[in-house]
Amino acid sequence: LRLHHSGRYRCGGWVNAVVSQWRESEPVTVTVHRVPVSGVSLWAQPPGGQVALGDRLVLSCAVAAGTGPLSFSWHREGSALPLGTGPRLELPHLGDNDSGHYQCRVSDGDSVAESVPLNVTVL
């Protein structure tokens, strides 16, 4: 369902007695509500966010509830400029400057929710 599916609905059909007649039910009102984004979590591969210098880190973001379409963005150290979009962020060759707190933000256009920051340490 989408928000634009809200409205008044009725069903109808031909009733075949002596003479066929079109009959309709009383209308019913259907209201579709948006579910705010909540329960944003992230996890890392390798687990724990400790990565050897030059190795790859993959971060994944999940949402427990929220009406779509959802947009994802990845941020390091609270930066407004996203590192990437989508539910997955891959950093192929980590360097010394890549250590820090990473966070996933999810929006449905009306509400925004963030994951708890994950501390990534490049060893």
Chart the SSEs and their pairings.
Blueprint: E1 7-9, E2 12-16, E3 20-24, E4 28-30, E5 38-45, E6 50-51, E7 57-65, E8 71-76, E9 84-85, E10 88-91, E11 100-107, E12 112-114, E13 118-122
Parallel strand pairs: 6-13
Antiparallel strand pairs: 1-4, 2-3, 5-7, 7-10, 8-9, 8-11, 11-12, 11-13
CATH class annotation of the largest domain: Mainly Beta
Average of per-residue pLDDT values: 91
CATH architect. name of the largest domain: Sandwich
CA-atom Rg in angstroms: 24 Å
Query: What distance lies between the first and last C-alpha atoms, to the nearest angstrom?
Result: 47 Å
How does the overall form come out from the CA principal axes? rod-shaped
**Residues in helices, as a percent range:** under 10%
Provide the number of structural domains.
2
Domain Ig-like: 27-121
Organism: Picathartes gymnocephalus (White-necked rockfowl)
Pfam families: Ig_3
Protein name: FCRL2 protein
Short synopsis of the structure:
This protein is mostly beta strands and 123 residues long. It has strands at residues 7-9, 12-16, 20-24, 28-30, 38-45, 50-51, 57-65, 71-76, 84-85, 88-91, 100-107, 112-114, 118-122. It folds into two domains: 1-33, no CATH class; 38-122, Immunoglobulins (Immunoglobulin-like, Sandwich).
